[in-house]
Amino acid sequence: MKKLLDDPAEAVTDALQGLAAAHPDLLTVHHDPTYVQRKGGTPPGHVGVVSGGGSGHEPLHTGFVGSGMLDAAVPGAVFTSPTADQVAAALKAADGGAGVLAVVKNYTGDVLNFETAVELAEIDGVRVESVLVNDDVAVEDSMYTAGRRGVAGTLFVEKVAGAAAARGDSLAGVAEVARRAVARVRTMGVALTACTVPHVGRPSFDLPDDEVEIGIGIHGEPGRHRIPASGARDIATRLIDAVLDDLGTTGGEQVLLFVNGMGGTPLSELYGTYARAREVVEARGVEVVRSLVGSYVTSLEMQGASVTVAVLDDELTELWDAPVRTAALAW
Amino acid sequence: MKKLLDDPAEAVTDALQGLAAAHPDLLTVHHDPTYVQRKGGTPPGHVGVVSGGGSGHEPLHTGFVGSGMLDAAVPGAVFTSPTADQVAAALKAADGGAGVLAVVKNYTGDVLNFETAVELAEIDGVRVESVLVNDDVAVEDSMYTAGRRGVAGTLFVEKVAGAAAARGDSLAGVAEVARRAVARVRTMGVALTACTVPHVGRPSFDLPDDEVEIGIGIHGEPGRHRIPASGARDIATRLIDAVLDDLGTTGGEQVLLFVNGMGGTPLSELYGTYARAREVVEARGVEVVRSLVGSYVTSLEMQGASVTVAVLDDELTELWDAPVRTAALAW
């Protein structure tokens, strides 16, 4: 294992130190317990939006802390849920008096720890609504969770919920927007290589040089099946067909198309895959009106990508377009 | 070789198709010859800023086309200079009546083809100033060029030159800013793995599992030496010491610290490396006042990073801070 780090046990701490030092205008890193908070805190009277989960998926979630997206993010160890104490501290810190929305990816550990954290925060008088993201169409259950996994679609949910909070929606309103986003977003991914968790020191699975894994999760957990390594067109077709079938598009929808890199794939390949994916979407009569291409929800240095489609309506489009200023997403 | 692409010979074209489709608000891709132009063209009366070079370093340069940075970018084949015809077409297209600044990375092919292109554009009445970027302190000559290579510091030069053009500076003024930026920016990199050029199909060099290459170029060309794989602290110290020695900092300077990923390195490792690099910079009495962390000047899927230090003055800081809106850099 060659990685740009020192003690694997300190990898998350070291990265957070760098994040804090590089972005003092955007965020603050708190310790004991660890969470990342928007600089200056949640604007008074606005709903706070909080997410979190295992590290190793950067920039998700810490890179999305700032104005117009997350008010706080809670990083666990690599591929390990944050503790309930961490999450509770972030929920309390993010309360600007109008309550807090917790965006939770559907993994068993995250779900349990967020549930406990919400109870702890509510004891302290913080109103919390939770929304569960489960956009991965690849498998119904996986080694990390019962039910569908939450993957790259989480970015969409966090963006529109953050924008709803920024414009002053109530807690019920922000939660409604987030749940609508969850209902309308689906994702499927492919891995070309495995990744290596620093404190494990060896690849998380074996993938032959001539095969790819369709339907991979963001921790390297198995997907639907392995196929001989094909090309961007074949892979994009498989992924988009699965996503659109699950969404039940019939043609005429307006969508966001998001091609996400798993961490080790060059941006040029992501744009090429986006071109192929878009052709498949359009061939099914669906109109791509918004786009995002880049490595935003990753699995360490894994090579691969996921495609996410979100069916927009006027309000979700407006919320997607609303200003955002974070370390990883800004417009 | 497993990559998310179809015909390797079409990889650049496919990526440009995706870039154009994903960012219709920012840019337009022209064909025959190929170049990428800012949407709507250079504002009349403003200097155009143009750069280009081999593909495989994305988002450099095409991802920096938009407002406040590049008016046009010219992508060659992977690791291959664009032709003089391509560059000349971009120079002519980017002339808004106030002339054009060409930002050229110091590689023999780029230098020759840009020189020819400038002559062609001048025949057509376009005034052009050129600035050569040669920020890599690792080696004096390399397999691709005589003199120092142009690497990640190019981003800094393009950003401040673009900002100078956006505020309405004359061609001489924009060129002066760019040359001052070149004089004040230095970079050195490290590779943990090689990369594979699509149409070659095998890694560009061999690097044992327990060694890293210090002073690597952005095409995988050799650097200063190989060392046993160490940690982020050791590597950051080696790179920063070489960069600051070359800059001749004596303490008290205010700098931009930019940690750049080579394409296959996770963002978390880049932030951890940034933290270590910053400690070394500060221990030498130099103050980090601006920061950038991410994979902006890459070598396909190579794992590794470079550190860039730019010594700021008030004007360069103001130009760095000025608004920018491109696919890869926005604030």
UniProtKB/TrEMBL annotation, chains A, B:
Keywords: Kinase, Transferase. This is Dihydroxyacetone kinase DhaK subunit. GO terms for cellular component: cytosol. PROSITE patterns: DHAK (PS51481). It comes from the Bacteria. Residues 7-331 form the DhaK domain. Pfam families: Dak1. PANTHER family: TRIOKINASE/FMN CYCLASE, TRIOKINASE_FMN CYCLASE. GO terms for biological process: glycerol catabolic process. GO terms for molecular function: glycerone kinase activity. InterPro entries: DhaK_1, DhaK_dom, Dihydroxyacetone_Kinase. The lineage of its organism: Bacteria, Bacillati, Actinomycetota, Actinomycetes, Micrococcales.
